[in-house]
Amino acid sequence: MLASCNRALDPGVGPHGLVVQASLSAATLADDCAAKSPPSSAGSCAVNVPCGSPCQQSNVLVALDAEPGRGPVAVEIVAVRLLSSDGKLLDHLDARDPTIWTGSSYGTWDGELAAASSIKAGWNISAPHWADFSDARAPSITYRVEVDLSIDGVLRTLSLDGVTREPIIST
Amino acid sequence: VRALLFTLALAGCGAEHSTAWQLAEGGRYLDDAGYRRDALVRSLANPDNAYSTQRLASYGRGWERLPEWRPRSRTLEADDAAAIMRGGIAALADRPTPPPLWDGTRPTELVEWIALGERVFFGFPLRPEPLMEWALTAPELAESFGVTPLPDGSYPGLRVIVDLDGATRVGITCALCHAAASGGDALVAGRARRNFDYGSLRLAYHAATGVPVEPDLARRMRTWGPGRADVTEDDEDPVAIPDLWGLAAQSALTQAGTIRQDDSPVALALRQETQYLQACGHRARPPRELALALALYLRSLQPPPNTRTHDQVTARGARLFAQGCVGCHDNAALGGPPVSAATVGTDPALANGHARGTGRYRPPALLDVRDAAPYLHDGSVVSLDALLSPSRLTGGHRYGAELDDDDRAALIAFLGTL
User: Fold this and answer.
1) CB-CB under 8 Å, B229 with A45
2) A44–B63 C-beta distance less than 8 A
3) pLDDT(B12) > 80
4) CA-CA distance, B417 to B308, in Å (whole number)?
5) Of B67, B198, B282, which has the smallest distance from its Cβ to A27's Cβ?
6) Of A136, B61, B311, B385, which is most buried with the most CB atoms under 10 A?
């Protein structure tokens, strides 16, 4: 496959022998909402009312297609990297909270992929440290996101080009 | 005048513009991935800006593998708002939410597509909006930012939604920014809600809750004011919320002409599909049928009837318009193809921005222009008098400033009939 977006490198097979196709569907570079919780002493929302935050969670979405065979196998993200469009490493991001599409929403996922299944999985990721690479901070610059994904103990790297920092209002 | 313009805009001039042709184009958009991709490429006026780069990298590729989302939602009613005021959004979690607004059956006739598109416009959530949950904890707070209920107590543009994580939230739809009442009139779909002050809402939220906000972002939001917001990846070029009249007549979409379109609804459907996908954080994509339905609906929108009559003054204004304005405002909606930002002379930040810029601005449709203040893409001019005044201090669009007072008044009178 050409070295462009959505490519899956090294589609190796782990000890279970299960063949899995994986691709990075999308990436959102925005906030880390877990890190932006309002201070407990602040807030003018009604008493005892939980109050949302104008926060958009950064994430990566991965499509996984497992062929028939021996499973399930474990899937986890080992590393997420943010690179400039010309391949310069800018930041390491942390992935957490794996979820799986259940037909109408995303629910908690234990990271196990069954044989003969197709799933859409998502991970929250930490927000880029934009201030650490200020020359590349301009929101309109496009980036590459790389994800090291472990499937049945075998690592493969997925990447996505053309990712931008999210605007305040998507329209 | 209005009727003639719309006849031209909607009926088109040849067989290639027929309803059957438009529906056939829509069918290809729905069923042919290669056609969709080609149509996307054709629609990008500047393939090198960030918006285009992202779409070229992901549309028909990674985004194709996102799950299709048909959210459950319902209109946010007065008793919902009261419940939020008493107990927060959690109070709505146990209330029943109806099934998705579309059952999966494709319409066959244009009128059916448009009816579905209207339901999307008012009812398909673009994204959750926690700021609205906060504002609704006090009705006067929401009203101070332009978020007001209709006489029946419902809030246009606000929905109770079951979000992508299964949680109940307040969501927003197209109607939040693009449907508004004028005076005592009923709600008008397509009219910009110019009293909606999103920047002030955000700033008030941060001030009240202590949730941190970047100082630079706060500085920028303080400059927006009612009816303006920054919707690009640059965050430095706020635009006025536009009316949505005359889209079918325009050869370009967005103030900067970011998207080219021909006479089919496909470029707009692609734009709406992208918008929904981006608004939900790239976690899901909308059914394409709904994007197409919305595009057909938006292209059908008309301003309220204009009852102003013509007289000798407006006739004189029409002649002046024909002499001096139709060079740019030349299509059936009296908009036109994009012109260079240098030529029009207005603030070039949006046109030249890396986010969605093309180096050009699209002359807006002039339908209902009398009620479309503030003017120019950034809403920097408060009235038609100011726009055409030789003493205006803000730069750009100096056309009409050379007219004497009588001619200027005649031109403004004519514009009032559109």
Assistant:
1) no
2) no
3) no
4) 6
5) B282
6) B61
pLDDT band at A8 (very low <50, low <70, confident <90, very high): very low
Question: Is A144 within 8 Å of chain B by CB?
Answer: no
Q: Are A52 and B89 in contact (CB under 8 A)?
A: yes
Yes or no: say if B174 and B180 are a contact pair by the CB < 8 Å rule.
no
Shortest distance between the Cα of A24 and any Cα of chain B, in A, equals: 6
Other Cβ atoms within 10 Å of B317 Cβ, number: 23
A37-67 per-position pLDDT tens digit: 443 333 333 333 334 557 889 999 999 999 9
Q: Which chain B residue has the Cα nearest residue A104?
A: B69
Residues of B in contact with A106 (CB under 8 A): 164-166, 283
Between B395 and B335, whose confidence is greater? B335
> What is the four-CA torsion angle of A74, A77, A79, A83, rounded to 10 degrees?
140
Q: pLDDT tens digits, residue range B28-72? A: 999 999 999 999 999 999 999 989 999 999 999 999 999 999 999
> Which neighbouring-strand residues pair with A76?
A150
Three-class secondary structure assignment of B30-73: HHCHHHHHHHHHHHECCCCCHHHHHHHHHCCCHHHHCCECCCCE
Q: Do B210 and A162 touch (CB under 8 A)?
A: no
